[in-house]
Amino acid sequence: MKKPRYERRVPLLALLSALPALIAALILLWTGDLSSRLQWTITLVVGGTWLGFWLALRERLIRPLQTISNMLAALQEGDYSMRARLGAPDDSLGLVAHEVNALGSTLREQRLEVLEATALLRRVMAEIDVAVLAFDSDERLVLANRAAERLLHRSEESMSGRRARSIGLGGLLRSEGPRVVDMAFPGGSSRWEVRVSHFRQEGKPLRLLVLADLSRALREEERSAWQRLVRVLGHEINNSLTPIQSIAQSLQSTLERQVQKPGWTSDVTEGLDVIAGRAEALARFMSSYARLARLPPPDLGPLEVGDWVGRVVNLETRVPVQIVPGPPALVRADGDQLDQLLINLIDNAVDAAGETGGGVRVGWSADRREVEIWVEDDGPGIADTGNLFVPFYTTKADGSGIGLVLSRQIAEAHSGTLTLANRGDVSGCLARFSLPAAAP
């Protein structure tokens, strides 16, 4: 037999639960010494009252459940405006209604957050100058932003559902990790950085393809580099040519006189010496620039950090440099270039410490991935940190301004980093140079 529904089964059980008491009452009533009219009257009153309580029980039991069911159906449909008012706040039915209302409020807030985040994401994707496309597991396009439409000269509607191969992007989806490619699209030819990542939408795996135009950024950076270089070269060359031109004009005037003043030969000699000195300084400057521009690629080999640091520290004879030993560490590097890097750092530290009579310390730390070498001094610190790595900028009277720039080039050529900063607790500077660790 088919099982009756809940709203019929529970009231029926309530009806049957009172039936034995009702039958017993009627038996006592009809076996008593009462008139027939009174017996029928009492029977109707008792029966009507019993049926009335049964209907009231059914209404109080079924209606709240139907209300809660309608609430949950509305939440499922995305309607969070409905609220249930059932029972007192301190009874079980009131607690159920309270929890359903709280669930609706939570879902409403979460839905608003998702809608706002989605709107923001769509606005960002529409405005950024980077082509963004999403493909499903069959490599069919499901999403493209405005930059992608301009790049491919097609609307998103016309490309939606088409395979990546048919719109000229099939080979790019199989790349792993960021890479740079030279490709021509209907919207232009350029050098592109290609990134492919994975995400899920509605439980379905999707692939995200991002194409960033590198040519414009490279051109702007190249133009900025040329402007900085021309500015530095022009400043240094003018510093040498201006006094040379002035002294040359004075010497020419001296030699054109009909009658020379006493001691004119010494004036000419002194002027020629100044010209020679400025020409030599200009030659040193151009030599330093050539040295900076022609740094050869490193010849990598195994290098034990402790031996290397000890060897370079022993080259400094002006002040004793303290070595703070670290754990045994090995790197693959060009020993000659790293010698030059550490010599530059120690030389700067010793010069700074000489101004205050402080000391210099060199040490290192290491883990499985990285080795960090540090040089610490007790000098006055760095006054202008913004120009530390600007070529030819120096605060030393006899400095060339390429030591730190050359050191950073060496560090980056070894896939490392070089940073300099003032010590926060006391005066002085701390240089940190990191390198990838090599397997022993």
Note down, in words, how this protein is organized.
With 440 residues, the protein is α+β, with helices and mostly antiparallel strands. It is built from ten helices and twelve strands. The chain has a five-stranded antiparallel sheet with strand order 2-1-5-4-3. The chain has a five-stranded mixed sheet with strand order 7-9-10-12-11.
Number of helices: 10
Largest sheet: 5 strands, antiparallel
Report the count of strand segments.
12
Strand content: 15-25%
Strand order of the largest sheet: 2-1-5-4-3
The poorly predicted ranges are none
What's the mean pLDDT score? 76
Please trace the helix and strand order, writing H or E for each element: HHHEEHHEEEHHEHEEHEEHEE
The end-to-end distance, rounded to whole angstroms, is 79 Å
Q: What global shape is seen? A: elongated
Structural class: alpha+beta
Rg (CA only): 44 Å
Share in helix:
40-55%
Write the topology of this structure.
Elements: H1 6-31, H2 36-76, H3 92-127, E1 131-135, E2 141-144, H4 146-152, H5 156-159, E3 179-185, E4 188-201, E5 204-213, H6 214-256, H7 264-293, E6 301-304, H8 305-313, E7 321-324, E8 330-333, H9 335-356, E9 360-366, E10 370-377, H10 403-413, E11 417-422, E12 429-436
Parallel strand pairs: 7-9
Antiparallel strand pairs: 1-2, 1-5, 3-4, 4-5, 6-8, 9-10, 10-12, 11-12
Helix pairs in contact: 1-2, 2-3, 6-7, 8-9, 9-10
